[in-house]
Amino acid sequence: MTPTYYLVLAAALFTIGAMGVLVRRNAIVVFMCIELMLNAVNLTLVTFSRINGTLDGQIMAFFVMVVAAAEVVIGLAIIMAIFRSRRSASVDDANLLKY
Amino acid sequence: MLNTVTLAADIKAPSMNYEALAPMLIVFGAGCASVLVEAFAPRAARHIVQTVLTLVALIAGFVALLFVDRDGLKTAADAIAIDTTGLFLQGTILVLGLVSVLLIAERSLTPGGEFVAHAAVAPGSTDDKKLTASVYSQTEVFPLTLFAIAGMMLFVTANDLLVMFVALEVFSLPLYLLCGLARRRRLLSQEAALKYFLLGAFASAFFLYGVALMYGYAGAVDFASIHNAVQADRGDETLLLMGLAMLIIGLLFKAGLAPFHSWTPDVYQGAPTPVTAFMSACTKIAAFGGILRLLYVGFGELKDDWRPLLIGVAILTMLVGSILAVTQQDLKRLLAYSSIANAGFLLTGALAMNKEGVSSTLFYLVAYGFTTLGAFAVVMLVRDADGEATHLKRWAGLGRRSPIIAAVMTFFMLAFAGIPLTSGFTSKFAVFSAALAGDAVSPVIVGVIASMILAFPYLRLVVLMYVTEPGESGADVHVPGAFTSAALTLGVVATLLLGVAPQPLLDLAEQASQFVR
Questions:
Q1: Contact B216 A48 (CB under 8 A)
Q2: How far is CA B31 from CA A36, B143, B339, B398, B421, in A?
């Protein structure tokens, strides 16, 4: 099996995630799409690690996981706070800041 | 094509030059200590303890910075480059961070200060109203600020794309939270935090994909390896160009450059004003420090590929920022668009591709940082019962009721507009002349036009304060407390000094424009 397929799969996942961020309306789903993008990056890193024959890529994937976990903590805290004040997690409802 | 994965049999611990890392370690350590203060200090004592701890840590970090070897060295397995540019940027972040902390710690303008008493209580509830009137506030803002400052210091010295990404998150995550902690108009503040977080995380995902593609291209992510791979022209060029584009997208977002600027006005308006001031001064420094290092150290060989594109970005940013600033009715939004336009001026200097380009960008960052901190400090003073009165109408006739504050604001506006004898003139002159010397003529022409357009909103505020009759809806001007007075004085003195006698700092920036690879 050529590892290139995994690169293509990762690129497809990254694109699906990016599209999801742009079209979905619920903040939680938008956030999940961002996590999908980060995990697509992890797959890319591990595949390149295999192609290059070095372990650096796998170690980087661990770093990405830790950062993503920290991001989840912050993100859910913010989304929770906004849900408690508005009873809605839709990004369309958050529309007070304009002009 | 497949190689066997070599197993790491003997992992050697990287050598650390603790002396060179001391400034960062002090601030990171103080951040951790500050978390412990939150856990163990009694509530009434926390604010004063945290303020003292934060200020002492930043001063200690700056003192430690003065003793660092300036020859340029790499440490921590070549992941961190302590060179003169990095040290200059770290010093600037520490000084401007200190001034921001003065604004963050200010409590005399309103009971409890600018930060919410309890972020978990829903806005508008009876508990919330009771807490808003109390003297309590979330003192977690101090550890968050310390971590953000330390992350920025790491970001400008990162010599490795992975460290750069981690540092980017270390300074971004606390900022997302800080944006949502305003005491008044909490819905706006939470909305700003949500928008900043979602868009910021989106942009970091792009940056990270760029890191992965660059690892695929060069087999390593440190700038020296990438530079060597580019020079030797090995690897797949598609990966290289796609990766570079993604990295640049991530950094353009952080720096607030068009077309990735759209978060700036919303976040600047919704965030608590001291945090807005901190972001407009320090985040800009960190972002441009990262852009300079990435482009000059990592991808200098590729400049024919990225320079035309970024010249287009600079032109677009200056036009978008200046034209939209004209239409604004809210002072914080106006300053946000002005910061977008200023990011365009900064990029013009960074694209000069010569030594003057780097030194003028460094000088501009210092000068702009002090002026914008001062301007936001004035915004904090003009208030009504509902907090800050940021609508421009409320500023009408301010010059009669409070001549000193109006004069200070006028001075900052003149500095933004680039009038001679202020730092705004010197810094714009420096970046434009560097860009001309580097044959980047078109952004300079647009830059001059954008400066002229921008003079209109700035001077409109001045006219509003002095000429327009004060309406019934005028706001009160509060007497600044000790901290705000100190921040304002520093802002005025730095803006004036860097306009009248800029040479010492220009010389320092000139000596500082030296990267190690």
A1: yes
A2: 31, 5, 28, 40, 39
pLDDT, tens digit, 9 for 90 and up, residues B485-511: 999 999 999 999 999 998 988 888 888
The CA distance from B306 to B303, in Å, is 5
Q: Is B326 left (phi over 0), alpha (psi -120 to 50) or beta?
A: alpha
Query: Which among B4, B194, B211 has the least Cβ separation from residue A27?
Result: B194
| Nearest Cα residue to B344 out of B440, B236, B228 | B440
Chain segment B22-33, per-residue pLDDT in tens: 999 999 999 999
Cβ–Cβ contact B148 with A under 8 A? no
Closest-CA distance, B267 to chain A, in angstroms, reads 9
Mean pLDDT of A6-30: 94
pLDDT in the model for residue B156: 94
Percentage of residues of chain B with pLDDT beyond 90: 62
In a mutational test of the A interface, the residue from B177, B197, B328, B392 whose CB has the highest number of chain A CBs within 10 Å is: B197
Do residues B20 and B8 touch, judged by C-beta distance below 8 A? no
Contact B148, A74 (CB under 8 A): no
For residue A31, the 8-state DSSP code is: H
CA distance A72 to A80: 12
C-alpha to C-alpha distance for B268 and B262, rounded to whole angstroms: 11
- In this predicted structure, the answer to whether residue B154 has a pLDDT above a threshold of 80 is yes
Segment B95-129, tens digit of pLDDT: 999 999 999 998 888 888 888 888 888 888 888 88
A-chain CB neighbours of B220 within 8 Å are: 54, 56
Q: Searching chain B, which residue's CA lies closest to the CA of residue A39?
A: B205
Three-state SS at B380 = helix
CA distance B91 to B79: 20
Three-state SS across B254-307? HHCCCCCCCHHHHHHHHCCHHHHHHHHHHHHHHHHHHHHHHHHHHCHHHHHHHH
> Quick check: ipTM above 0.90?
yes
**A74 touches B: beta carbon within 8 Å:** yes
* Range in B28-32, B328-332, B346-350, B382-386 the model is least confident about: B382-386
The residue assigned the tokens 């706070």 is: A81
Task: For residues B141 and B115, give the distance between their C-alpha atoms in angstroms, rounded to a whole number.
Answer: 8
Does any CB of chain B come closer than 8 Å to the CB of residue A19? no
Number of residues that this document lists for chain B: 517
Tell me which chain B residues have a C-beta less than 8 angstroms from the C-beta of A82: 190-191, 193-194
Q: Closest CB to A85: pick one of B187, B195, B208.
A: B187
